[in-house]
Amino acid sequence: MSEVPTPPSSPSGAASTPLSKLDPGTSAAAMAAMTDGIWLLDAQGRVIHSNGRLERTLGVDEPPDVERCGLRESFHGDYPRGCLFHEMVRSGKVTEGEFRHEPSGRWLRITCYPIHGDGGELLGATHVARDISDTVQIEAMHDLLEATVDQSPDVVLISSVDLRIVYVNSAFERLVGRGRDEMLGRRAWDMLEIFSGDNGMNQVNSVLRNREPFHGLLTVTRADGRQVHLGGSVLPLKDSTGTLSHLVCIGRDLTQQEELERRVQHLAYFDALTDLPNRTLFMDRLTPAMARAEHSSRVCALVVLNLDNFKAINHALGTAAGDDVLRAIAASLLASVRDGDTVARLGGDDFGLALLDMKWPEDVSGVLDKIQQALNKPIALAGTDLEITASMGIALCPSDGTLPSDVLEKATLAMADAKREGPGTIRYYSAEMGSRLEKFMATSARLRKALERGEFRAYYQPYYDITTGDLAGMEALIRWQTEDRGLVPPHEFISVLEETGMVVPAGLWMIDTVCRQVVEWQRQGRPVAPVAVNLSPVQFRTAHLLDDIRRIITDTDVDPRLLTFEVTESTFIEDPEYTRSILTALRALGARISIDDFGTGYSSLAYLKRFPVDHLKIDQSFVRDIIEDVDDATLVSTIITMAHNLGIRTIAEGVETAEHLRILRILRCDIAQGYFFTPPVPPDREDKLFGPR
Questions:
Q1: Is there a common fold for 2-137 and 152-253?
Q2: pLDDT higher than 90, residue 350
């Protein structure tokens, strides 16, 4: 409620005439012609006449009584309660206020003009009411939109067509480290260097000239000089006449996403515990070095080093102490090799060393001597000095091979031969190391008969939604049932299936068996969840894979939505375009796609963004030590966050304890699988597969 100056003459035009003597016909005609609601009050505040406008606006039958008509103050300021008339009587001046009429919900601006006699006595008052509901609604919407933009996590900047800043929201202030007052009125592209490079102003001028928006990468310079990348747009804003009036810059800070990508890329090629190159980067570096050695007089040596009795250290001192040993060994190895050589952690307590560009094979022994001297130094740990020895196997290029995989295999065979000789032994690969090959050939022959005799079995391991505890799916795993040995451990025959190509017929048998089992479970009324089948890299590369899968789906009449196909990360890198075409076709059938053992291979964010992936399985090697190993916990958290940002659900393998499950729940993992629930079981163990957890 507010007071306004008293007009020079009363609205009636006859202030000296008693209100009761005004010509009612004349005043009524004048009032009826007005668009605002008007009513006359006598000296006691009673309504004596109204033009009816206000009644029609409010939907009432009688002229509103100022004090009892349902108008109440609900507006700006802390004014004394009471009607405008009483306030006018108190002050003797014109008063004004904004009111909400509760029954109709309309907002009114009412002005009360006093009518005085010749002696200054109050004869009455004129109330003029204007419906401002549309204005109030527009102002409220404006306030809402302004608050929404200001509180948005996206940065917003608005400039005039001469590129001077007229508005920035709070997110923009925080991003650039400057206050709003400091930026308003200044030229945005000069002060903040939005867009990077010489082409920046060309992009701005293109928006101004063509009236077309720009979408892409923006670079904003902070007050401290640091540049921040935004993913956003610059939009031309036109007024009601179609004339360009402003430019609107909207963007989202990409710093966290870029840091996440850098972190994932680093994890893809470096070991999280030791920060040494992992197997992938190790092999990448070997390829060009061996190519140079093959076409020159130089020699490359590939050393596979395995710590002796490392399991005993873990058992006696704990895995945390074991991790400290691995880090200490990594530092010692790095200090022992030459610049240009590579030290990598291949997995577990296996290290790889690539000694490159040596002039003579005999030069390798000098580096090995330095390595042994470094390893002979005790490691101070847990109040004691640990003496660590290592067994080493060495293969040379080009004499032992020219392909990195071949030379690594031979160095591994030499290391295994050294382990059999005792701690600290060094062995060079030789042709006599054929025992592994003999075992390989024997296993291969038995596996061929196993295919003919039907000795393979399909076992199933369920996995569960971490939040609800519901069955989320199963993984089908191949097992080999022999008459003399019973179940053969998978690690003894899976690699042989891969290397011989027998994984292709064994894999098709597995898909067919799973499909028939799913149909049978449905016939029995079981609550079947999608069952995952592994596609090996060898099987994936076969030209008729899609045709075989389509045929099996048709023959078994299985619902393809109940199938998930798992592929490993290494499958992507070999032929990305072919891989994407196959996965897209499988998805088109209705099946789901899962990446198996994520984190152990290439771990490329670029591949995840390009491929149709539903699930990402976090390798059990990371889950196993998630309780004690901060790096593993960080890695798992990073993978989960990255997957969720891409709309991919995560499955943690190797969950063995309730504590594993608790931490995974905190990290927002979606699904868990492991011995904590059940080991893989045959299909007739329905109590394990469909019973309560």
A1: yes
A2: yes
